[in-house]
Amino acid sequence: MLFLVGFMASGKTTVGSQLASTLDRGFCDLDCKFEDMTQITIPTFFEKFGEKAFRDKESEILCDVINECSKKVFATGGGCVVREKNRVLLDGQHVIYLKVPFDVIYERLTTKNKRIRPLANTTSKEELHSLYEERQKWYNSVSTHCIECEDLNSNEIVRLILKELSH
Ligand SMILES: Nc1ncnc2c1ncn2[C@@H]1O[C@H](COP(=O)(O)OP(=O)(O)OP(=O)(O)O)[C@@H](O)[C@H]1O
Ligand SMILES: O=C(O)C1=C[C@@H](O)[C@@H](O)[C@H](O)C1
Ligand SMILES: [Mg+2]
Prior knowledge:
The protein has 167 residues and is an alpha/beta fold. The chain has helices at 12-23, 30-38, 42-68, 84-90, 102-112, 118-121, 125-142, 154-166; strands at residues 2-5, 27-29, 73-75, 94-99, 145-148. Helix 1 (12-23) packs across helix 8, helix 2 crosses helix 3 and helix 3 (42-68) packs parallel to helix 4. Belongs to the shikimate kinase family.
């Protein structure tokens, strides 16, 4: 099992699916799995049931996939590392942190990919920056490999990950 962690819009879905096909493995995006299982979109789930209920379900799904022990590549939700329980679950797994500077993230969130994100769409740039800073310690602590993505394209990031994993 291989997990990708990182802030919203850091490239987990893009890089994860490319990495999975390069490795000839299955790919699973845990945000998509959440929506498949609950039959409700994440923004609507947040609206109806709130963040705590979202985090409970997110944890349950992470626990299930870890117990399944498949060989897939998993893209986690950006806030998956917030819960201590999830950080413990990820302990012992191969976890890749896609580290992207905040300015790049912010640019992507506001221009490139305006997918509705409950925590990004209603938050100011300053608040998002604090959230980004607050989470750094958790992304760092759960990850076995940190990839400084900077301005690399997804092919280059996949290549770097493969190099890291071969060590
Ligand atoms: N290396 C990259 N260089 C430039 N743009 C990228 C790169 N990786 C991803 N992107 C773009 O950034 C946006 C966010 O990427 P992606 O959806 O893969 O991130 P994510 O971490 O899965 O985000 P989230 O799950 O929060 O939606 C997309 O528009 C994607 O095309
Ligand atoms: O950063 C976050 O807390 C989130 C990121 C998304 O991937 C989703 O999991 C959800 O919108 C919460
Ligand atoms: Mg994603």
